Amino acid sequence: MDGINRTLYIPLYGRAKVSKMGIILNDKSAEEIWEKNPVPLGKQSKSRWLTYFMAMRARQFDDWAKMQLADHPDAIVLHIGCGLDSRVKRVNGHNHPWYDIDFPDVIAERRRFFAGSGEYRMLPGDVSSLEWLSGIDYCGTAVIIMEGVSMYLAPDTLKGLFAALTQHFSGVHLLMDVYTQFGAQMSKLKNPIKEAGVTQTYGGGMFRRYFLMHVSSNISASIL
Length: 224
Hints:
With about 220 residues, the protein is an alpha/beta fold.
């Protein structure tokens, strides 16, 4: 894997590192995957402070997901851009229909370490193409997690995604993180994702403008 797909190893390393330290996250799956499949990372990608940030971000998403699943026990979960994240285990998501979604080669890598069973499924697809939505026949309430994804989506792509989610589900609760405009600009100069070959990111005012304009009344959304 290369480019955007290869960036999944940065948060994996962070989760494994802090879990082994016994702080922030308990993620034995991340520890085991990294031990069995260590990937060379650059100095920036293994920065101590980036490691802590990745773990704290994941913890915020975990806590939000637990809250949403408690409030919406009949909801389906879409974890878009799942990488090698074991969030479904950390939040006990196996009690809900749960789809981990990512590029086909990422899902192929994921299947080396995770197995679909019962309500849990892994769905290959490019989020920007929206074809993957046809693989989900449920149309009720959806809890959607997009951690570390939106900064790779151009505003028009994000707009199309929101519209598709609005049309497919009767209600959506969505959490995603975004770069500030300054952060997106600085990422071209110094960012660990550059070590994976990623040079284009989006963020700032354009994100918030599209986000607020195109989230409809049936989407409850939050930005980190």
